[in-house]
Each structure stands twice: as structure tokens, then as C-alpha cells.
Amino acid sequence: MTRTGSGEVSGPPARSIEVVVDRAGFGVLVAEHDLLRSQLRRALTSDPSKDRRLGREVRSFATGMRRHLRREDRALYPFCARVFGGRGGPVEVLKDDHRALRGKLTAIERALADARDVRPLLADLEPVVDRHFDLEEKVLFPLTAARLTEAQAAFLEDKLRGEPRG
User: Residue 112 falls within a domain, yes or no?
Assistant: First the structure.
């Protein structure tokens, strides 16, 4: 899978992503990444003369993005911190990204509430989102999946899906 400068996806998905999607609920996260990328692209290409449509697209994206970040913060990152180490470990970089993404989402939501043009803020957000998702899909998910036992993979999948294993 390759991404063009405009964020379009072309070609078959990378092998590592195919393998990872089958384990530990990573498929849920990759599907969310794809949906969020699509929502962000739609918002970026919305006609500004149709403010309602743009506002709906942006609100939908922001809500989905916040939900996604929460899911990773509560289920995936604590688990990965135990596997790879907490403070100063690789998960800290991704947690820093989450803080930055939340700040950018807040700025976008404020601009929308003030009836300001949010498209420049969305354009600024797009490469940050793409880089963050790429780090997860190409580095974190494959490395985590490779280190999981079947029991750990099942536990993590339940946490990511929000389903307790009984």
C-alpha cells in the first residue's frame, strides 16, 4: 500500500498489515484508521459554500477520532507499555501524538464554533494523522502482534472490541 501526497491509497496492502489484521483486534484499529482518513479527506474536499455539510463532516471526523484515541489510550497503549516498556519507550511517542492530535481537534472544533474556515487547520492535521496511523500500522501493530501469545492476543482483542472475555 502506498500513499500519495494527497493521502490516497494505491496498490495492495502491505503484507505485515495483512498478517496483523488477523490478530489481537488490530483489524478494528486499521478499519478505523481507514474510515478516519476517508472522513478527513471528505472534509478537506467539501465545498466551503455548503457550510452545513463541512460542519457535519468535521464533527463526525472529530467525534470518531476522539473515540479512536480513547480506545487506544485505554486498551492498546497500556498493554504495549507493559510489552515494550513504559516511560521513554516507543509507546510514549505515540501518546505524545495523541496529545498533539487532541489539541489540533480542539482548535478545529473552536474554529468551527466561531464560524471560521477550518480547512487550513484540517490540511495541517492530515499529515500528522497519516504519520501517526502509519507508525501504528507499520511498526507498533506488527511488533506487538509478533510478541503476543494466543491468550494475550485474545485478551487484547476483547479490550479493543470492548467485549469482556468470560
Answer: yes
For the cut 90, the answer to whether the pLDDT of residue 61 exceeds it is: yes
Residue 4 lies in a domain: no
Q: Give me 97's grid cell.
A: 501524538
The domain of 41 spans 10-160
**Is there a domain that residue 137 lies in?**
yes
| Lowest-pLDDT choice from 24-28, 70-74, 98-102, 134-138 | 24-28
**Rounded distance between C-alpha atoms, residue 43 and residue 54, angstroms:** 6
Q: What does the pLDDT average to over 9-20?
A: 45
| C-alpha dist (Å) from residue 94 to 41, 44, 64, 74, 86 | 22, 24, 18, 13, 12
Number of domains in the chain: 1
Under 8 Å between Cβ of 62 and 106: no
Grid coordinates representing 14?
A: 502491505
